[in-house]
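[SOLVED] Need 3D model of a two-part complex

Original post:
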Amino acid sequence: MALQHLFIINRSGGLMYHQDLQDEAPRISENDWLLLAGTFHGLHTIATQVAPLASSGIQTVESSSIVVCCFQTLTGIKFVVTAGAGTGGLDGFLHQIYQKYTDYVLKNPFYDMDQPIHCELFTRSVVNTIVAFPSSKR
Amino acid sequence: MSARSHARAGDVAWGRMTKVNGELFALTYGAMVKRLLEDHSEIDEVNEHLEKMGYNIGIRLVDEFLAKSGLPPCSGFVETAEVVAKVAFRMFLGVTADVTGWNPEGTVFSLLLADNPLAEFVELPRQYRTLSYSNILCGVLRGALEMIQYRVEVQFVRDVLRGDDVNELRVELKEIMNEEMSEEYKED
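Solution:
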């Protein structure tokens, strides 16, 4: 099973970046991308409040058909990936995307912080990370 | 994490970073400072401008540090200071700093830098003796720490270029920023 979608959510819950990670991934309308990002941001924040033990938020959501993996940086940016059930190595994948973000987005002087990402170099590096991702079951 | 593991993490991170020529780095910075001195009439304005430029760098640099150092979150401001001095400085400037001069509350500390790669070839002329040549570093620290919810003020209190024996940056924690709901969402 393979990767489906990538979301990058900023500190205030706005969607900075989204991408279909393979051609067969379910199609999401532009509006739904924004809705999903905002909803996930809200859920993530609520989860840290209601967790019985000290928590840093939602890390994975697993169901019979899908797994959602989230990595929140110490600076408040969330990297979220969805994949088919049973896909492993998602945390590593998100860490690699984070590194690409620090290189191709943050080092671009024409990119404004917390705004939607329209950096060609970043998109290309995401594609390379996907290609290098091992698509085997956990 | 222990002091030794911080030092080792710093060395590993430094090893992984792509390097740039030290002379080019120092000369570029010097050219920029010189240009700022020509553009501003007051030296204080130059100091402020350097700090602002540093801030803009710092807010972006911190994510690269977090992504590439691979360190777990620090246990508090005290550990943050150690990580900044031993890992971050090493990773980006190739030198380590020493953390000293803590106040009793643990909110103010000093970073001592024996070597400052920015100022390697510099002599400050008399008319610029109030210039904080490496003030960009103060801004970088302020910007980087702000993104991890520490609002700080950073000052160069001792500068080798101004005749002191060591470079000292004084970092003062003003506020730990917690996310608050804005007024419109609070229930009465």
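Edit: Chain A touches chain B at residues 73-77, 95, 98-99, 101-103, 106-107, 113 (CB under 8 Å).
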